[in-house]
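Async update (no meeting this week)

Hi team, since we skipped the sync, here's where things stand on the single-chain job. The sequence we agreed to prioritize is pasted below, unchanged from the tracker. I ran it this morning and attached the output directly underneath so nobody has to dig for it. Comments welcome in thread, and please keep replies under the output.
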Amino acid sequence: MPSLSCKVMVLCSNPGRLIEYSVLLNRLQLFKLNLCTDFDELQKALVKQNHYELFIHADFTPEADTLSRLQSMNRENSFGQLVLIGKTTDLEKEQLYQWAWDNRIPLLRVLNHPVTFAKFRELIDSLVFYRVKDLDVLSLARNSMTPINSFPEFCRNISKA
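Output:
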């Protein structure tokens, strides 16, 4: 798997688990990581780097304040896609997907702890890009009749373009 140029933000209040997530992402060759333990750190990081392709909220609880912050971050275009990891029921997951749809939030997945390496690989393979630059590469690939089946293959095609 090639090294990917995606910028990833991980928010987790547990420093040990934060390190585990960074190791998992590094094993998937995602190296442009920003690790934060609270929303204050996250806001400071967003001042320096205002957009991340992937934002992983790793100790998510569906509270009004958290949902409000995520909506605000989405309005500011702080992230391309969102993954929520916590302890949620099937009903809560369904409600979160509906909330994301209603608020136009690019929620990729809602996962429960613990998240395995295989789950992270599946997650990374399912990333979708919306930037114009990426769409240009997609049209280039379509014109050359090269099918793009996964995110890593998409990244290889970007480096060739």
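Quick observations from my side:
Helices lie at 15-27, 39-48, 64-75, 90-102, 117-125, 132-143, 151-160.
The CA atoms of residues 142 and 148 lie 8 Å apart.
Reply here if anything looks off.
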